[in-house]
Amino acid sequence: MEINWFTVIAQIVNFLILVWLLKRFLYKPVLKAVDERKKKIEARLEDAAMRKAEAKKDKDLFRQKNEDFDKERTAKMNLAQEDVNSEKERLFKKVRNESNALRSKFENSFKQRKQELTDSLKRKTKDEVFAIVGKTLSDLANANLEDQVIHVFIKKIDNLTEVEKSKFIHALNDKHNPVAIKSVFDLSASSKQKLEKAIGQFAEKQLDFNYKLEAELLSGIEIETASHQMSWNIESYLDSLSRDSITM
Amino acid sequence: MRVSPDQMVFWEYGFITINLTIVTTWALMFLLVFGAWLITRKLKSDIETSRWQNVLEMLVLMIRNQIKEVGLSKPDKYMGFIGTLFLFIAVSNLLIILPWYEAPTGSLSTTAALAISVFIAVPFFGIAEGGLKRYLHSYLQPNIIMLPFNIISEISRTLALAVRLFGNIMSGGLIATVLISIVPFFFPMVMSALGMLTGMIQAYIFAILATVYIAAATEDTQRKKHKEIPLEVNEKQI
Fold it and tell me: Is B10 helix (H, G, I), strand (E, B) or coil?
């Protein structure tokens, strides 16, 4: 168990060479690889973190945009709804107005038509009745229809009530006293005379008579002073006839 | 009976003697360097690596962490020396599994050489770290009276390093040899396994002690620089 000093020196040298060789071929490359890997992993992690942050930013941006879009859409929808409602209201109003106008126009036209029909019917009936009555009267009596009208009118004057009579007298004696006698036919001289006599009995002065032809009177006669009017004709009868005929 | 591989001499010329210890050491050196080169020539710094690269990385990082744990804050600086100590002793002890192999660590010359290397390395690193003045000052700690004791401690621990490793390995080999001659089957195999375990532990102890000595030499400087907790690992604990 002795120490061989040459071996000791040789082993020291061997050891130092081994240290150098292992440093060169083992520790340095391995540590370098480990450090590089560490750096790579760190870089990757950093990159990942950066990407994550970027993704989050993008996500936030996208969400914000989405929210903005939703808000805008809702606002636009509301606006559009309001527009539609107001437009609908406007159109409804327009249609209602038009329909009202049409209805009133139609009603007017209907009324007019009705009036025309009634008038025409009245006229026809009057003419017919007049003709029938005239014919009947002329057939039955030897006095013509006009004479009968005068006769009936004179009778009406004679049969006036006291109140009517006083009104009539007052009217005749008024200072404006031309008495207008309106008829649909020309009165004969005898008829005129009879009338003047019948009227004149109430007058306190000489009366002026003014004869007029009036087609609207429908086989009747009318006395008109400045303040009074008295008439007889078949129009009232015809009116009731026409009412009955229309309501039928 | 041969106790040390030094005694088997292949070639001799005066002072120069090429014995089994030196030859085995060369073979081990070739094995270590060639193996390292074989693996590290195609190292990858990608996430996926070869399994041999993983093994090497684990080994190297383990050594580095051990150095760091003992208290050297810059392990890469001491990596070459301490790592090589550990690897050389470990591989040389582990190969006793091979027949007719004699570990160079079973030679007192080798262990003395390694212990002398540590003996030189401690002041070398101490001076490199904190300067000559600070290193020499550490011999006067805690008091000038302690100077001779510090020097004795320095020499005795070097001696202890050499003898501890030599004794363990040599005795292991010797017992195996003796047992083979008495009980040729089974028992020497168990002893070999035990020898491998002892050899591994000795490699660890040798490397750790070297680290502790270096750390102690550079301790003041490091504590001043990093304000680290004082070293808790010392020789007595081991």
Answer: strand
Q: Domain segments of chain A: what residues?
A: 1-98, 141-247
b vs e for B179-206, b when ≥16 Cβ sit within 10 Å of the residue's Cβ?
beeeeeeeebeebbeebbebbeebbebb
Q: Do A22 and B80 touch (CB under 8 A)?
A: yes
Say yes or no for a CB contact (<8 Å) between A33 and B80. no
Residue pLDDT tens, chain A, 248 long: 578 899 999 999 999 999 999 999 999 999 898 888 899 999 999 999 999 999 999 999 999 999 999 999 999 999 999 999 999 999 999 999 999 999 999 999 999 999 999 888 888 887 787 677 666 765 665 556 677 778 888 888 888 888 888 887 887 777 666 788 888 777 788 888 888 888 888 777 777 888 888 766 665 778 877 777 777 766 666 566 656 655 54
A2 and B108 within 8 Å at the Cβ level: the answer is yes
Mutate to test the interface with B, among A2, A11, A38 (most CBs of B within 10 A): A11
- B43 and chain A in contact, CB less than 8 A: yes
